[in-house]
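Tokens for IclR family transcriptional regulator. Go.
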Amino acid sequence: MNDRPAIARAQKTRGAQPVPPARPVQGAQVVARIALLLRLVGRNPAGTPLAEIVRDSGLTRPTVHRLLTSLAAEGLLDHDAVRRTWNYGPEVFVMGTVAAARYPIEELARPSLVRLAEETGESAFLSIRRGAETVCLLREEGSFPIRSFVLHEGVRFPLGVASAGLAILAYLPEAETDALLAENAAFSARWGPQHSPASIRANLERTRETGYAVNPGLILEGSWGMGAAIFDRSGRPGWALSLTGIEPRFKPERQKLLGQLLLDEASRITQTLQRPPIA
């Protein structure tokens, strides 16, 4: 139902002028496309091939190539002509360095990652929520010699895929979760039936019961992960700590230990973030 006429009448009754319909911002589509391409390029620190960017962007190859070339001319991207891949350029590094001072989460989380890696021997990670995805920000290697390489700095997963995304999604409002888990044939084709809405919801229920999420090799067989959410000052889950490793290291009897360590460190960071600012 369109409520705009009713709103306009109410405003007129109060002597206010009706609010005109919002106009599309000129160039917004181009900005959205550029932001999408930058995110896609940043998924792989080793570089992303053009074909993969075209496939995942849904844009035509000429359009993608034109925009990538323009971004490279501005220093935001680099093109590796030998490997035929696209990477972040020096301007992105400069921007990231400037922005880092405003977002102290990495500084707060690093000690927790070190403790988790030292106490468990597994690789520990910090991921942040960005819209409908999680992005891995930090990694701390554990001492166990066999590792999982599914997760690394810059990699993105949809919420509900990987333990960090499950941990965050479990504590979002129900309506928001429903919208994120709407049936999507392309999503199921990309991530497999083990990531159907029903399967994800079942995992979310288990996560709410224990407080931590478990990914039992759903992305790559034999590669397990566990995660716990970090909450911002408003009580919303904005980040997650996670541990990854091979299946024998995540047996049921050890999951409780790993889960409690994750919850303890996530709680430590949450309490610091929620502490009132010093006047």
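DSSP finds eleven helices and nine strands in the chain.
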